[in-house]
UniProtKB/TrEMBL annotation:
<dbReference type="InterPro" id="IPR011962">
    <property type="entry name" value="dCTP_deaminase"/>
</dbReference>
<feature type="binding site">
    <location>
        <position position="111"/>
    </location>
    <ligand>
        <name>dCTP</name>
    </ligand>
</feature>
<dbReference type="InterPro" id="IPR036157">
    <property type="entry name" value="dUTPase-like_sf"/>
</dbReference>
<feature type="binding site">
    <location>
        <begin position="119"/>
        <end position="121"/>
    </location>
    <ligand>
        <name>dCTP</name>
    </ligand>
</feature>
<comment type="subunit">
    <text>Homotrimer.</text>
</comment>
<feature type="binding site">
    <location>
        <position position="151"/>
    </location>
    <ligand>
        <name>dCTP</name>
    </ligand>
</feature>
<dbReference type="InterPro" id="IPR033704">
    <property type="entry name" value="dUTPase_trimeric"/>
</dbReference>
<dbReference type="GO" id="GO:0033973">
    <property type="term" value="F:dCTP deaminase (dUMP-forming) activity"/>
</dbReference>
<protein>
    <recommendedName>
        <fullName>dCTP deaminase, dUMP-forming</fullName>
        <ecNumber>3.5.4.30</ecNumber>
    </recommendedName>
</protein>
<dbReference type="GO" id="GO:0008829">
    <property type="term" value="F:dCTP deaminase activity"/>
</dbReference>
<dbReference type="GO" id="GO:0000166">
    <property type="term" value="F:nucleotide binding"/>
</dbReference>
<keyword id="KW-0378">Hydrolase</keyword>
<dbReference type="GO" id="GO:0015949">
    <property type="term" value="P:nucleobase-containing small molecule interconversion"/>
</dbReference>
<dbReference type="GO" id="GO:0006229">
    <property type="term" value="P:dUTP biosynthetic process"/>
</dbReference>
<comment type="function">
    <text>Bifunctional enzyme that catalyzes both the deamination of dCTP to dUTP and the hydrolysis of dUTP to dUMP without releasing the toxic dUTP intermediate.</text>
</comment>
<dbReference type="Pfam" id="PF22769">
    <property type="entry name" value="DCD"/>
</dbReference>
<feature type="binding site">
    <location>
        <position position="155"/>
    </location>
    <ligand>
        <name>dCTP</name>
    </ligand>
</feature>
Amino acid sequence: MILTGKEIQKRIGKEIVITPYTEKQLNPNSYNLRLHEELLVYTELPLDMKKPNPAEKLIIPETGLLLKPGVLYLGRTLEYTETHDLVPMLEGRSSIGRLGMLVHVTAGFGDVGFKGFWTLEISVIQPLVIYPGVEVCQIFYHTVEGQITEYSSGKYQANQGIQPSMLYKDFEK
């Protein structure tokens, strides 16, 4: 089952941590998360799964930044989240989708116990000017049945910013 907005609010500070949190971003069954001002863009193509891929940082100015189709922009949420005893999920807001902006390619599924900022895999269908602090996505929570094992991966847990792919670590085993 998916938690209602009122249930999300009830669990803030317990099973759910969202920092900063404001009731204004709470929806009937989700919570809106905002876009941080930093983005990463890979600088060398083709990308290689077996090695770290270099990326450069971009800052979204208050006046906006033009995103171009065919480019993958890695962003992150302004909010830090922690989720215990629930499965967090992330989806783009419909208003953002109606502008042709995608906020994740495949990584909208979180794990029980995830702690950190959400890395967003942003792409646009057509050129679009974006701004920092815009509510671009929403987090919602599923209840879990059965014994829980919390997420503890060293790749992305407790991140401090945008996380490029670390798939290359899987090849080091």
